[in-house]
Amino acid sequence: MQCVFAVGLAVGFAVPASSADIELPAIVVQGQVSKPPDIVLKDREERSPDVHWPTALSIRWSEIFAHNAIDINASCATVWNHLIQAYLWSQWCPDVGKVKVSNNDGSRTLRMNTRFTWSGFDLGLDTIALPAFQVDPPFASKVNEFVPESRLGWVSYTTAVTPWGPLCDAYHNWLLTPTSANKCHVVLEAVATGLGARHARGVYPEIAHMSHQRWLEDLKRASENHG
Questions:
Q1: What SS3 class is residue 179?
Q2: Does the pLDDT at position 111 exceed 60?
Q3: Highest-pLDDT range among 39-48, 73-82, 152-161
Q4: What is the DSSP code string of 66-95?
Q5: Distances 7 to 14, 15, 16, 116 between C-alpha atoms, Å
Q6: Contact 220/197 with Cβ under 8 angstroms?
Q7: H/E element, 217
Q8: What is the pTM of this model?
Q9: Between the CA of residue 42 and those of 50, 64, 180, what are the distances in Å?
Q10: What is the C-alpha separation between 4 and 209, in angstroms, rounded?
Q11: How many whole angstroms separate alpha carbon 176 and alpha carbon 151?
């Protein structure tokens, strides 16, 4: 039985050829190898045509662009009140703080031309080790667009300046659209440029998109709870 088994193996299995005897088909590579688009490029493609931008702002050439949207089960009036009461942002969005609003009459709500400072989370600026600025630099901002219960936009820049220019210049745009009596569609878009934006694009391009999504989700909870 053992001899028969051995013969069967010899007959049923051929000895493989050496690698030198096997001719492989040619492989032709055409085109250029490129990385898949990051979240910044994807967000640019999804930008809302209804959002207003300053004419001097280049969205195409800015290092960071973020598009986020959410549906909130509350009226746009309720959502709007949470947005313009900037001094209360930290109560419902812990990632935003140190808000100081400057109006001539002492009011602390945002309106057209209001100037305010705040600290945010958009670009992770505290990860840049430069002697020219302190950790968690505030943004100095001015409201450029204000349409009650509809549009809110402000320009921002960091108070820190590096040898290469401002650490970051940015613009935030909010667009509120009622979809029913107690439902509001909110779009938040932002653009940023400068050393901080270049740093974020290189090491963490998703940071603005992800942080803005948290901002919208916190706004949704606050508005739906009327808190």
A1: strand
A2: yes
A3: 73-82
A4: EEEEEEESS-HHHHHHHHH-GGGHHHH-TT
A5: 12, 14, 18, 91
A6: no
A7: helix 207-224
A8: 0.76
A9: 18, 11, 29
A10: 71
A11: 6
The structure tokens listed for 197 are 């934006």
Inter-axis angle of helices 76-84 and 207-224, nearest 10:
120
Residue 153 CB neighbour total at 10 angstroms: 20
Residue 165 is predicted with a pLDDT of 67
| Domain range list for the chain | 57-224
Measured distance CA(162)–CA(76) in Å, rounded? 40
Short-list 147, 159, 174, CA closest to 100: 159
Is 168 in a helix, a strand, or coil? coil
Contacts of 49 (CB under 8 A, 6+ apart): none
In sequence order, what E strands does the chain have?
Answer: 64-72, 97-102, 115-119, 139-147, 151-158, 161-162, 165-166, 169-180, 183-193
Spelled out in words, what is the top-level CATH class assigned to the domain 57-224? alpha beta
Predicted confidence (pLDDT) per residue in 154-207, tens digit: 998 876 666 766 677 889 999 999 999 899 999 999 998 887 777 777 777 788
Residue 71 token pair: 């549906």
Give the count of alpha carbons within 13 A of 137, CB side only. Answer: 27
Q: Any idea which residue has 């050496």 for tokens?
A: 18
Task: Write out the two tokens for 113.
Answer: 């031309």
Q: Which amino acid is at 170?
A: A
CB atoms within 10 A of CB 127: 13
